[in-house]
Amino acid sequence: MMLRHIISMKDFSHDEIDIILKRAKDFEPIARGKKSSLLSGKILATLFYEPSTRTRLSFETAMKRLGGEVIDLGSVEKSSVAKGETLADTIRVIGNYADAIVLRHPREGSARMAAQFSNVPILNAGDGAGHHPTQTLLDLYTIMRESSLSNLRIALVGDLKYGRTVHSLAYALSMYHADMTLISPKQLQMPDVIKKDLKKQGASITETTNMEDVLGDIDVLYVTRIQKERFPDPAEYQKVAGIYRVTAELLEKALDNLIIMHPLPRLDEIDPAVDRTKYARYFEQSFYGVPVRMALLAMAMEVA
Ligand code: NCD
């Protein structure tokens, strides 16, 4: 498979996703420490114009465990971005140093724009409230490993308006014919353009504001953080902060095989007591970012 830029889940077919998930499975032993020199001599550049812990460090881990090197732009204030350099110029330059670029940027559409100026693959690690396709691939992988992608009943809860993880995930889930319940306050519903797209693809979507009512009918509960930094008005954030909270008591209503996922970081939307229940999978999920990103790097650098 020839894979150039990874910008949005809309760029992938169902078959391509299956190939990536299968490759990720092959990489799991290396993610757990088995030696590899598959990407020896290759350089990955990481450019994060927004905070990141998991995405940046799991890409870095994936690259290093495969024997490759990583160069990092570091904090935006210390790079030429602070002097006013455009994203297009930064990308042109770094494309001459590295074999692939991981980019996170606050502006929606920035990754697709960057791809137009890059002579190496751009891997979109989040473009504002837009997309986060590499997170989606690790989310799908988690579902495959910990539950099942077939006949899946899943609820996405929280900030469906500004949450890029759920935008990308919803597109992918529609390819797997999942039965989706979207749970959010009215003002944080999934954007209409996305819902329209999903319905065009024949997706089964139900919208509600109530999490409790659906807990007994789902295989996966995908919880998200309210994206405080995207609210134009802090008062509007205060109205919805802490609106959903998954607790151990609430989970008495859950099916036995339910799994709970969260892209993390979490604030108070999952009570820490839930971590000790059989339902919690969010820390496994963050580990799965490593084998999945290994598969993406190997493909982007055309060695697998
Ligand atoms: C998410 C993101 O950056 O969109 N984090 C991540 O990559 N795991 C989710 C979030 O910030 O809430």
Automatic annotation (TrEMBL):
GO terms for cellular component: cytosol. Belongs to the aspartate/ornithine carbamoyltransferase superfamily. ATCase family. This is Aspartate carbamoyltransferase. It catalyses: carbamoyl phosphate + L-aspartate = N-carbamoyl-L-aspartate + phosphate + H(+). Keywords: Pyrimidine biosynthesis, Transferase. Residues 151-299 form the Aspartate/ornithine carbamoyltransferase Asp/Orn-binding domain. The keyword GTP-binding does not apply. Pathway: Pyrimidine metabolism; UMP biosynthesis via de novo pathway; (S)-dihydroorotate from bicarbonate: step 2/3. The keyword Metal-binding does not apply. Catalyzes the condensation of carbamoyl phosphate and aspartate to form carbamoyl aspartate and inorganic phosphate, the committed step in the de novo pyrimidine nucleotide biosynthesis pathway. One of its GO terms (biological process) is 'de novo' pyrimidine nucleobase biosynthetic process. Its EC number is 2.1.3.2. Heterooligomer of catalytic and regulatory chains. One of its GO terms (molecular function) is amino acid binding. It comes from Candidatus Methanoperedens nitratireducens. Carbamoyl phosphate binds at R54, T55, R104, H132, Q135, L264, P265. L-aspartate binds at K83, R164, R225. Residues 4-144 form the Aspartate/ornithine carbamoyltransferase carbamoyl-P binding domain. Pfam families: OTCace, OTCace_N.
